[in-house]
């Protein structure tokens, strides 16, 4: 490998692993040259590569620094949902999005889908191929109701990285995180019970609440720090909340990471009022910062946190491999899992367990964090250039979706219908509320298609809004 590329790779790894934080000054050119035994020009070329990737920035007469995200557009204000339990609606809108457009598409911003063409996935695909060739019978018989033991052992290792000390027996494998959320809701609540949720919140969680005949109580939520603890406490005083459903680490749709102290405060509040917490951690492994943020589950001393996740966002949704660490609700979760879908397919579990064990999963995550961060920054620049004045955006700390709040005069649902005619598919904000709020908002993924295509789609949307604004 060319020396400067090798050095750039070493430096990138140090940045990704948190040895240098955003804003930190990097070693001088002369210092690095002496440390690595290379020429000054080699170090300068390495720094140039990292500049082009947006990881570092040069400051006149000061040297090189780890890049910080500049917030040029205002963030959305804290949400103000109706603070009373509500029946979840809007299934038809969600179904319409899920069933697809059917025509030729230019850019699909609506799905939260990871990059599935990355070279770092090839060992996983090869493993799956070999399993299908040589162990097909394993995929045709019943498996363990809790999931493959080898996979659960690897889940235990991953959980340790998020601050939780869990054994293989503490996990129940599910068909993705959507089933995990559904099973957890049915394990902790009964018909008519109240579930406190973030607002805006993931539409799949909202629909799981609807399917279980529960009511959603939307809690004001900030795009930086997440659910308001003060508003949640008022809600717990006023309503018989049975559980709190949150996505505190790389939230969907806003992308924030709740500060660690606030996660602990939320857990302590749940203890005080004796309610369960259903923690959706599906994006946690693709948080940009390293080490990855700790979960609320890491504070759990009495088993009240049901931790849910899957590989749908970190690897690919088609594997349908998710899991629950249900704590004190393990027996109920196992029963409901059994009567809803019994065992999960075995071969994907075996392939993913091998992928993690051999180090492929961590290599893939490192690569995706770089790609997703770069795509986020490009998307934010595109929105700034193309969208009307007064637009507000979230600044995701991981994953690949962000939240856009247009000025109140715009109807995102109408815009989505117009955009569909141009092959641009959007996810209107009303789906992320139990009752259809956020009609001026949209959730975007920022990794569909290539950067030039995404920018062209944003320009088209900007022109549409300009035409509607006259």
Automatic annotation (TrEMBL):
Gene3D superfamilies: Aspartate Aminotransferase, domain 1, Type I PLP-dependent aspartate aminotransferase-like (Major domain), Winged helix-like DNA-binding domain superfamily/Winged helix DNA-binding domain
Keyword 4Fe-4S listed: no
Sequence ranges assigned to domain HTH gntR-type in this UniProt record: 1-69
GO terms for MF: transaminase activity
Keyword set includes Transcription regulation: yes
UniProt xrefs under Pfam families: Aminotran_1_2, GntR
Domain of life from the UniProt record: Bacteria
Protein's name in the database: PLP-dependent aminotransferase family protein
Organism this protein belongs to: Alteromonas gilva
